[in-house]
Amino acid sequence: MKLVPMAEILNKANDEGYAVGGFNINNLEFLQGIIWGAEEKNSPLILQTSEGAIKYIGMDYVLGMVEAAVKNTHIPVALHLDHGSSFEVVMKCIRNGYSSVMFDGSHYPLAENIEQTRKIVEAAHAVGVSVEAELGRLGGTEDDISVDEREAAFTDPDEAVEFVEKTGVDALAIAIGTAHGVYKGDPELDFERLKTIKEKLNIPLVLHGASGVPLEDVKKAISLGINKVNINTDFQQAFTAKVRELFASDEELYDPRKYCGPGREAIKAKVMEKIDVLGSANKA
Ligand code: 13P
User: Fold this and answer.
1) Which of 208, 229, 267, 270 to mutate to test the pocket of ligand 1 (most atoms within 8 A of CB)?
2) If pLDDT is split at 50, 70 and 90, which confidence band does 37 have?
3) Cα(212) to centroid of ligand 1, in Å?
């Protein structure tokens, strides 16, 4: 499989000041909608699978589909594990040809997160695979926690420096106010914190939970040093909205190609819109 290590894609983005999509795939329609959108925009692409998606699709099917997708593509593509939870899962993905992995030890105390991440970086780098890690805790979508509690979970800039020095990760996911899934209101991002982290640490930074974040805020975060923007929910919603619309307008509809095809087109259109915001068009 002709995959590119994520570090190659993100280091260029960091040097030139734009971001690349870490777009989650959940089935064939997602993969096709996403890669076709990126190809049309001539953009590099990070295709990512959560552990849940690997379980749903099956590892062999993920590999087969991605191999077919990248066989004739002209854009650089990385295949990345999103939120790997253990050394074993990470190793399984590396063994199967992933060009990048995330190890998420953000729920561990700092020293343990460092220790576990360091071991993974050592093994991954030995075979040319990139590593993303996370420091600080992403919010849930519930708003019933206090401001102090919310900020206590944000990434501490000095800890981020220590973490990167001791682990050697290629990219760092930081907590500055985003959350996975659907927001109740607009999220409030801590741009000052992002700016401080980037000043202390000039490596590619990752924004998780970017669905539903106002586009102006995403652009501002990129201008302050975010180089990878993770999106899943926005594509799920685009696909499902299209399918719902078709079901509502035609009760006789039963051929999956007649609703999954348009759903896939809706994902592709959303991908192209996101790539314009990220600034990665024509950077392939
Ligand atoms: P959203 O589903 O909120 O876009 O988050 C995706 C993500 O961060 C994957 O790691």
Assistant:
1) 208
2) very high
3) 10
